[in-house]
Amino acid sequence: MGRKRSSRIGNTSSFKGSGHRSLAKDGWGIRGFNGITLVDFPGRMASIVFFGGCNFRCPFCHNPGLVLPSLIEEQKEIPPSVILEELDRRKKLVSGVVVSGGEPTLQEDLLPFLESLKALGFAVKLDTNGSRPQVLKEALKAGLADVVALDIKTSPSRYPQVTRGTGFEAVREAMAVVRELAPHYILRTTLVPGVVGRKEMIEIARLAMGAPEYHLQPFRNSHTLDPSFSALRPYPPSVMEEMAHILEDTVEKVVRCW
Ligand code: SF4
User: Whose CA is nearest to atom 1 of ligand 1?
Assistant: First the structure.
């Protein structure tokens, strides 16, 4: 997702229990948990669940530990029932759960997991790269996500080159799905020099027309999936501000995450 790496990622030391059914079939199951975040679920104190596995290979990704199989394997899988028990204990403190990754929609048993979160009374925010619009549609039709955060990596024509995964068509479909079905949705772009410039942002702004909320994230050059991106200097605030202005012409609200 290109989101912030948790300080507790892969830290399973506070969990007990085993022998639970794994979620990992297409994906790699739960590989990280952060008990509390004040910034990842707008308006709520939340916990974050991180699923391992992703079908994109964005070179600027700063969560390679949730993407590259050799690194995922180094992190112990956490059984879903252990997460649910932990969340149940936290109910007085947190009201939301962010389901992130990696790419959570790759998990075959994602929907039953979301059902369990809703049964516990949590609001759910689902982070996705948009590559599995059908899963998104099923989750939203069943009322299993209150907020969807959908990444827009770059302009459509550059998608295969940038994500080293599928083209933009699935993401375009995911945009239509969230527009139609999500109670609330957020579009997100990480401002990576050479990946998103003024030209790409103008195209993105057209695509995002009418979106209720758009988050612009600065590129951070530490722990990138492609080590050569660590040498890339992030945009200065003045350039990021210019990008925000371009978006402000077409979306309702731009959140500057810097
Ligand atoms: S979609 Fe890209 S940035 Fe997000 S987890 Fe996958 S590789 Fe990383």
Answer: 1
